[in-house]
Amino acid sequence: MKALVYHGPGRRSWEDVPDPAVKSPDDAIVRVDCVTICGTDLHILKGDVATVETGRVLGHEAVGTVEEIGSNVHNVAVGDRVLVSCITACGRCRFCREGRYGQCLGGGGWILGHRIDGTQAERVRVPFADTSVYRLPDHVRSEDAVMLADILPTSYEVGVLAGAVQPGDTVVIVGAGPIGLAAVITAKLLSPSHIVVVDPAPGRREAAATFGADLQLDPGTDDVLGRVRELTDGLGADVAVEAVGIPQTFESCVELVRPGGHVANVGVHGAPATLHLETAWIRDLTITTGLVDTRTTSVLLRMLAAGQLTLPGLVTHRFGMEEMQDAYDVFSRPSETGVLKVALFGVHTGME
């Protein structure tokens, strides 16, 4: 089969690799019908994730069709259309029993496209299939469902819920890439009074407005801190969500929140960021970090199926699976291409 293979920092290829096979009674083999590319994949290609070995098939999000199951798989059957989660859960260890699947001790967590071969391929082996894939209703489009593999639960859990967003809050989201826009979508579920998005790209600020941000600021030309304080009687935001993953944006979030406020870091950082405790220690701040657990995926899927969660315009570019290299080129140059998310479809499925 064909797959996107990592060959060290800056090097990738779409090449022939062996077909996956069932290795454990808990495994499922899924034919990939729709897949996307994540910002984390770009971090891997930059060399920011040293635990990814050369030769690894990348990707941790997909919608597909179950082709084979191990003898201990009971929740899905051959022929089922499923969402493959970015997080794999053994379901038995201490952290899984607490719903912290991202920290799984039993061989799960973020393993697809990280410690084992991932989803940017014609087929993928999914360990612990009973607790790591979700059957999809027929009427849910694949390109919408694949957004629930990672960015929607990540923004909701690590940004909105960890940030303790409450009705009436002012929420500032720094970064309007896919994760930041997903944070806008999921923050609205908690009815904040204001959602402010900060991003230097005009197209992404426009997208944020489309998804529900009522104020969009350019950090290069706008007085971001001043505008946020105008909205909040001089106090600052209740919650700041960091959705970029660079030192400047983290430090900006710390500055933007009010005393007693919350900074929820979602971005993947490849370099150290400074925490200015010399000024922050007295402000009673809460700062959280996290890897998504995907404990909310089933809830978000029910909302998507019921029409309570809509994702129009989040996928901006569509490709066939064999155009994986072109999709990476487009996704890695958002300022030039205007890309938000890409969706790639298998030859047997066509564009959806």
TrEMBL record:
CDD domains: FDH_like_ADH2 (cd08286). Its EC number is 1.1.1.-. Residues 10-344 form the Enoyl reductase (ER) domain. Its cofactor is Zn(2+). One of its GO terms (molecular function) is oxidoreductase activity. InterPro entries: ADH-like_C (IPR013149), ADH-like_N (IPR013154), ADH_Zn_CS (IPR002328), ER (IPR020843), GroES-like_sf (IPR011032), NAD(P)-bd_dom_sf (IPR036291). Keywords: Metal-binding, Oxidoreductase, Zinc. It comes from the Bacteria. It is an enzyme of class 1 (oxidoreductase). Gene3D superfamilies: Medium-chain alcohol dehydrogenases, catalytic domain, NAD(P)-binding Rossmann-like Domain. Pfam families: ADH_N (PF08240), ADH_zinc_N (PF00107). PROSITE patterns: ADH_ZINC (PS00059). Belongs to the zinc-containing alcohol dehydrogenase family. PANTHER family: NADP-DEPENDENT ISOPROPANOL DEHYDROGENASE (PTHR42813:SF4), ZINC-TYPE ALCOHOL DEHYDROGENASE-LIKE (PTHR42813). This is Alcohol dehydrogenase. It comes from Jiangella mangrovi. The lineage of its organism: Bacteria, Bacillati, Actinomycetota, Actinomycetes, Jiangellales.
